[in-house]
Request: fold
Amino acid sequence: MSDKNTFYTKLKAQLEDTTRFPTDYMYKFIVPSDENQVKEVQDMFNNKGAVIKTKSSKTGKYISLSIVLKIESANKVIEYYKKAEKIKGIISL
Reply:
């Protein structure tokens, strides 16, 4: 089993143990500010009722995104993380 699969299996178990779904779930990502990554993250959550806040780093090289979204299940939480990991240079917190 790969490290990512192990991570997502543990995350799913933790979410199911600690969270009652549906719930408002907060995603936090950091992306480089030099390309199109902020728009890619925003597009991923567009038309889903998400509240998205952005903040630039002191140097302006990175942008942090906080996204709050109503999520129905642990599987759905993981689905968004898997979509996000395809974005170049993204860091999930």
The first strand starts at residue 23 and ends at 32. Residues 3-18 form the longest helix (16 residues). The chain is about 40% helix and 30% strand. The chain has one domain: 3-92.
